[in-house]
Write a sequence for this structure.
């Protein structure tokens, strides 16, 4: 007689297998390449401005084009992944941003760069929600926050590598060298993904066919070799449809509104800061060839802070933690506005801003994984990040204006307003029993 086994329960009760570590590793590498390519314009911006004899504000449309692509990519790819599978959609996302980034190296005008950054943005924005969903699905619940944080650290790690590489190769290869590296490496990764990344067990389980059960059993036996042959596997909420409207069903609507509000305004500040920091440093008097190191400092602190944060997330009051981080971010921005040309102080405050402006992203990714049922997780992540990218468009597009009109001090002070607006979203965010009941209702 065949036994019926819940896939989430099986994963929660099993030790991490080599297959799961492979999945997490591939997801991390996707995020690493994504982070490198996302920040490519920040690394090369000053060099491109010089090469095309442009003012700082001329960089804004190019930065904005990439983020517009990310908005659409996060929303569309997340939804498609819930409908057609995680594996094919993450492959498409990597292929899109790799090809467009590589082509940018041969662009001969800023119009071409703008168009290619938009196309690359589609893939970069689409990859993030899928790798987060895959990681959450294959990870036991008691390790989910740590593993999701570890995977998403690929984004700042890629930015760190890019900043270090830019400071070394820009004088020798010009800005084009960054885009060649940023295109070739993910193309190699794409081949590995196609050869060795499995599909989501939960997605396969939706078809409820004998072939699907055989595919699941093949994967399950790699996770838990002791499982008997011929078992039947299921996911409790596998039948739930993946629709954007479902994010507002039952009691999910309140948290969806809160998460979207926080994501959007937090990303206004984060992308305005991250995209323009090297250029602001240059405007303050920092050596142009060393300006990318500002990005390295910010992202290094982000990485250092991330793992300790991940270990405490299940144990703390999430709303109070986010409030404390927003207050820290506002304090760092005020201090940067009055830091002058004391470069040690400026970089130290920039490192603090990584926690107070960017650290919320780590917490919010965990919140999304906890709030929504599995069937909606990629869609919820994609749309939350998509709304965040809307904020990123505003931040990236307006950064040059604030820099030109208010100088470096005005730029830093302008970051305080979106951080305060994001903090207001905490008033309606609910994490706890109400969240658990909402997810349970959705499965009924």
């Amino acid at each position: 007689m065949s036994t019926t086994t819940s896939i989430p329960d099986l994963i929660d009760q099993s030790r991490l297998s080599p297959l799961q570590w492979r999945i997490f590793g591939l997801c991390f590498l996707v995020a690493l390449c994504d982070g490198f390519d996302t920040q490519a314009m920040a690394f090369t911006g000053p060099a491109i401005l010089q090469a095309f004899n442009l003012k700082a504000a001329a960089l804004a449309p190019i930065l904005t084009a990439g983020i517009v692509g990310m908005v659409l990519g996060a929303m569309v790819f997340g939804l498609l992944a819930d409908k057609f599978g995680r594996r094919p959609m993450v492959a498409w996302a990597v292929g899109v941003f790799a090809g467009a980034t590589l082509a940018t190296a041969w662009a001969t005008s800023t119009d071409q760069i703008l168009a290619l950054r938009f196309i690359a943005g589609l893939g970069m924005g689409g990859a993030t929600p899928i790798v987060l969903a895959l990681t959450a699905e294959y990870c036991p619940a008691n390790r989910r926050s740590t593993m999701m944080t570890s995977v998403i650290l690929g984004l700042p790690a890629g930015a760190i590598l890019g900043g270090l590489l830019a400071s070394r190769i820009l004088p020798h290869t010009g800005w084009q060298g960054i885009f060649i590296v940023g295109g070739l490496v993910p193309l190699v990764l794409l081949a590995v993904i196609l050869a060795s990344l499995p599909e989501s067990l939960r997605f396969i389980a939706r078809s409820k066919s004998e072939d699907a059960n055989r595919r699941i059993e093949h994967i399950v036996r790699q996770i838990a070799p002791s499982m008997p042959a011929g078992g039947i596997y299921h996911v409790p909420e596998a039948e739930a449809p993946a629709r954007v409207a479902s994010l507002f069903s039952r009691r999910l609507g309140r948290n969806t509104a809160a998460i979207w509000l926080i994501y959007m305004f937090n990303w206004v500040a984060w992308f305005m800061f991250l995209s323009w920091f090297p250029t602001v440093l240059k405007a303050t008097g920092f050596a142009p060839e060393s300006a990318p190191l500002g990005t390295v400092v910010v992202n290094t602190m982000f990485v250092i802070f991330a793992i300790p944060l991940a270990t405490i997330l299940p144990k703390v009051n999430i709303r109070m933690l986010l409030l404390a981080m927003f207050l820290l971010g506002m304090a760092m921005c005020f201090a940067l506005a009055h830091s002058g040309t004391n470069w040690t102080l400026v970089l130290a405050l920039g490192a603090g801003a990584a926690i107070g402006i960017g650290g919320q992203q780590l917490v919010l990714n965990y919140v999304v994984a906890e709030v929504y049922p599995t069937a909606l997780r990629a869609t919820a992540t994609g749309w939350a990040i998509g709304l965040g990218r809307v904020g990123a468009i505003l931040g990236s597009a307006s950064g040059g204006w604030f820099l030109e009109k208010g100088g470096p001090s005005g730029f830093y002070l302008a970051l305080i307003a979106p951080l305060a607006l994001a903090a207001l979203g905490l008033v309606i965010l609910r994490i706890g029993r109400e969240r658990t009941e909402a997810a349970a209702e959705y499965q009924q």
Notes: The domain at 4-443 is CATH 1.20.1250.20 (Growth Hormone; Chain: A;). Strands lie at 4-6, 232-234. Residues 438-444 have pLDDT under 50 and may be disordered.
